[in-house]
């Protein structure tokens, strides 16, 4: 119950953000005109920018205007009601772990996972941090220099809201044109193939009764050598009315042994995002 309450709070929390109309001058002209025309109050000079619209959210989060960008970021990533829900979830998860005879929820959760223990997870994260720290520091230095060049010293240090504007990827002109949905899925399949010997098979056309919205795809994961089915992924990437604005990963069915070691329930998961839908005739991009 607590997990669903957390998600409902998160989805419901993303309402409009109140902006001063004069602060919108650095937005793209079409977006600025839309906000002023449809969501402004001429008497107060305020704009109620709807963050549940993906193109508005992306436009504000990637704005060159620091104040607008930070207001939008905090509105998207803040949800006060969830503080109490998170406390309750932590206590319930500990109670659940104790009832199963475990030391902690993390240890119970990871016991049958590939990582096996919290210690292995922390070691993996430490190893990754050591491998990427010098590169990350260099990128942070470049991003801060780019911010100061664009906003002056008054822009201050790097903020979480600066990532979309000043990260290394955002500095490559036209890079997003290569991030088509299919290219990204192909890239994921390549990594999974190299690491685990697993290939993807698109089964969407044979699974119409399982698809809950237009654009959802069903991918079967098969062992490259034996062709045996090892799991299923439902990919739901497009935004639509009433859908949450973040990205999430949901377990539909967990992997587990059944009556005998040779029998198993195969894992099934859903990858859910909220990318802007492409205009008619254009290639869908992850933007």
**Helices and strands: which structural class?**
alpha+beta
Shape: globular
Q: Give the averaged pLDDT, no decimals.
A: 85
Beta-strand share of residues: 15-25%
Radius of gyration: 22 Å
Unreliable stretches:
none
What's the total helix number? 9
What is the first-to-last residue Cα distance? 32 Å
Overview of this structure, please?
With 287 residues, the chain is an alpha+beta fold. 43% of the residues lie in helices and 18% in strands. A five-stranded mixed β-sheet has the order 4-5-6-10-7, covered by helices on one side. A three-stranded antiparallel β-sheet has the order 1-3-2. The chain has a two-stranded antiparallel ribbon with strand order 8-9. Helix 1 runs antiparallel to helix 5. The longest helix has 34 residues, at 118-151. The two termini are 32 Å apart. The model has no long low-confidence stretch (mean pLDDT 85).
Compact overview of the structure:
The protein is an alpha+beta fold and 287 residues long.
Helix-strand blueprint:
Elements: H1 2-13, E1 16-20, H2 29-39, E2 40-41, E3 46-50, H3 54-61, H4 66-77, H5 81-99, H6 105-110, H7 118-151, H8 163-166, H9 181-196, E4 198-202, E5 217-223, E6 229-238, E7 248-253, E8 256-257, E9 264-265, E10 268-275
Parallel strand pairs: 6-10
Antiparallel strand pairs: 1-3, 2-3, 4-5, 5-6, 7-10, 8-9
């Amino acid at each position: 119950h607590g997990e669903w309450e957390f998600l409902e709070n998160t989805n419901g929390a993303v309402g409009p953000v109140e902006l001063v109309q004069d602060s919108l001058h650095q937005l793209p002209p079409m977006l600025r005109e839309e906000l002023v025309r449809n969501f402004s109050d001429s008497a107060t000079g305020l704009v109620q920018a709807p963050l549940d619209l993906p193109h508005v959210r992306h436009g504000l989060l990637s704005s060159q205007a620091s104040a607008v960008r930070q207001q939008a970021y905090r509105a998207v990533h803040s949800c006060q009601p969830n503080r109490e829900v998170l406390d309750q979830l932590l206590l319930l998860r500990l109670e659940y772990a104790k009832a199963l005879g475990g030391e902690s929820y993390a240890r119970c959760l990871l016991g049958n996972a590939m990582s096996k223990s919290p210690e292995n997870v922390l070691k993996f994260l430490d190893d990754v941090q050591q491998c990427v720290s010098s590169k990350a520091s260099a990128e942070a230095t470049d991003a801060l220099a780019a911010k100061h060049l664009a906003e002056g010293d008054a822009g201050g240090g790097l903020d979480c809201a600066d990532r979309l504007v000043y990260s290394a990827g955002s500095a490559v002109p036209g890079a997003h044109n290569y991030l088509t949905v299919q290219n990204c899925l192909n890239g994921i399949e390549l990594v999974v193939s190299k690491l685990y010997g697993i290939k993807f098979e698109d089964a969407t056309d044979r699974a119409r009764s399982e698809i809950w919205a237009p654009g959802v795809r069903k991918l079967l994961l098969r062992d490259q050598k034996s062709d045996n089915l090892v799991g299923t992924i439902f990919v739901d990437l497009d935004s639509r009315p009433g859908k949450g604005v973040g990205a999430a990963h949901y377990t539909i069915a967990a992997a587990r042994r059944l009556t005998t070691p040779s029998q198993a329930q195969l894992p099934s998961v859903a990858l859910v995002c909220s990318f802007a839908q492409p205009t008619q005739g254009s290639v869908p991009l992850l933007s």
